[in-house]
Amino acid sequence: MSTSTAVDRDRTPAYDWLTPSPREQIGWDVDVLYGPWPRHHRDVTLAEVRRRLDRSPVCGALALSTRGPLFDDRAGNEETLRDLADCPELLPVGTVDVRDAMTAEDRLDELAAAGVRFLRLFTVEQAADPGFPGYRRVVGLALERGMVLLHDGDPRRYGPALMDRGADVVFLDLHAYLLADFLLMAREEPGFRVTTRMLSGPDSVERVVHSVGARHLVFGSRTPFMDISPATLRLRYADISDDERDAVATGNIEELLS
Amino acid sequence: MPIIDVHAHVGRWQFHLTCGDADDNLRLMDRYGIDLQLVSASEAVVYDAVAGNAALAKELASRPRLHGYAVVNPNRIEESAADLRRCLDSGRFVGAKIHTHYPGRLPGSREMAEAFDVVAEAGVPLLLHTWGREVLQLPEMVASRPGLRVIMGHAGGDAWREAAHAAASCEGLYLEHCRTAADAGRVAYAREAGVPVERMLFGTDATLIDPCWSLGVLRDAGFTPAELDRVLWRNAADLFGLQVAS
């Protein structure tokens, strides 16, 4: 079947999206990894991750080696600190394997001694539920030390266990479909934040900013496993103020780093 | 160059986001320079195919930049077959859409085979929701129905590697990569697997997903201008017989 349609070309052709704009500039990306990951079809080295970020609107990132979550948390943390010492645009993130929480205190002390402020949890990869003793132990120790949690998984499952504890948490895996549940928690939890990575709805970013405030939103890409441009474009075209955009892209993480 | 979006919807979804009537589609199309959009009714996808298709027909009547997919429910095959003919006869529908999650039928089921027969007989392209390893069933299902052309909506979702190999093995299969979780390297992987750029299409899942999401995937895919020309509109124009001013 053939259909003929004449298109009105009087509209301004909007090919702006092909070229990154200053409104896409990201000061801090909280979700960057490097190293082997067996499930992916190929591994990405730190050098390649840096090149990918260099070609993107992302200026700085919180990063860690995949060795920690997948194989050896202590060695992984050491590797991250060693590798990123020569990468001024990358800040090291630590991790603790929640499957062996007996050693969590040592891991956290090592991270604190190294000045690491962000602890990334891999509950999906490590199959840890919020009620598991190991998970509770790690989270309790991290919060006692004032660390910021970079938290994977479904916020509907993990959020309630983190409420009423003064926790600073960045949820890394919130899908746009689950936004309402996050907003209900964020109303009561000033320290709950979510990344832009999967806020793909036409007004998902706006709904966070306008209902609970820009402080609850930060940028996260999951480089090198996800494309960067979808989320930078969404932020660029979002119907929010420049100040709010700057807070999401940079300011909110600067505040946590200060 | 123009842009044709081959995967979009009109109507509300059951999540905390705004995706309302067809004017919202046009507003987003204007923002990003999308000329034409091929849409199915969310009501038809998640609830009542016949009623949703009928409601969409009314929306399409006054909006020439939108073209319809008639949703086929594999569980209501006779009813859907008649409805598909009715929709196509209106002149405002250009293809069929089949979801798998909502009707609970996957490629490999008897019901899906019958639905494929209905679409093949109608002679229009099929936009199929694909999300999982069942995509490996598709080459045989398409090859056994000469002339059937199937767009793998979401390019298999989590199973994008399997979808790439399925598409590479069957000339009647096309890839369309819209998805919230924008896994890096999907386009490059498909090309390395042997999917020609002539069988890649641009789709957004609007207004469930903002079109910039898929535009971002294209931007990161590193297409040449000539390849972008094919993916953004020319392949869709050829497949659906659409004409746009280029």
Automatic annotation (TrEMBL), chain A:
Entry superkingdom: Bacteria
Record Gene3D superfamilies: Metal-dependent hydrolases
The protein, known as: Amidohydrolase-related domain-containing protein
From TrEMBL, chain B:
Pfam family, one: Amidohydro_2
GO CC annotation terms, alphabetical: cytoplasm
Residue ranges occupied by any Amidohydrolase-related domain in the UniProt entry: 4-242
Keywords carried by this UniProt record: Hydrolase, Lyase
GO molecular function, one term: carboxy-lyase activity
GO biological process: secondary metabolic process
InterPro entries from the UniProt entry: ACMSD, Amidohydro-rel, Metal_Hydrolase
Protein name per its UniProtKB record: Metal-dependent hydrolase
Provenance organism: Streptomyces tirandamycinicus
